[in-house]
Amino acid sequence: MRFDIISVLPELLESPLNHSIMKRAKDKGLLEVYLHQLRDYATGKHKQVDDYQFGGGAGMVMKPEPIAACIEQLMSERNYDEIIYTSPDGQCLDQQLCNRLSMKQNVIILCGHYKGIDERIRQKYITMEISIGDYVLSGGELAAAVLVDSIGRLIPGVLNDETSALFDSFQDDLLAPPVYTRPAEWEGMKVPDVLLSGHEKMIDDWRHDQSMERTKARRPDLWERFQNGV
Ligand code: SAH
Of 39, 56, 154, 157, which sits with the fewest C-beta atoms within 10 Å of its C-beta? Predict the structure, then answer.
């Protein structure tokens, strides 16, 4: 899968996408991420990418021309399945959406800044608008990093244990059960006996029960979905 990320601050994305699982995915050739500095597509002496807002008011707006030039350049090189704009007013990211997006081949992510981007870019190019939660970031880069990480780890072969993503929280509308490692007793607290029993069926049942208990207690909305099987 290939991501092309358009940003005025691509440096912000270098560290999160170059370590751990994301790095491994890239090294294995399963994930490609290209960062594009929007300013390189701006014209004029000052390479301006933002301008005052029509109608007045505080805050700058990202100009349409450099964004269009960058997207057009990318679109002339390959076909894109989605052109995503990270935005607080977009569809809220969840595991189902990550699953769907992990099937795509080529995806552009456009990171906004300031007050956001000129609305006409959204009308002309953007195929999907995604929010990572009901709060406002100062730029789209952290949202882009969240997207690439949460989608990238679902690409088959990225995680070492092929099945491990299947048991993460949300995959089946249930939260994950508690996990323990050594020592078996720490500060007077013992790991539940069943996990030390070596009895696979009992362990699976225990984990499933714990997942259900946790979901019921913490996320009644997910619990309802799980029960209704939707
Ligand atoms: N004025 C806008 C916020 C602009 S914040 C509004 O009120 O909706 C600047 C940029 O940060 C946005 O263009 C977007 O790309 C990014 N951003 C902020 N919050 C985000 C969120 N919750 N999810 C995804 N991107 C976000």
Answer: 56
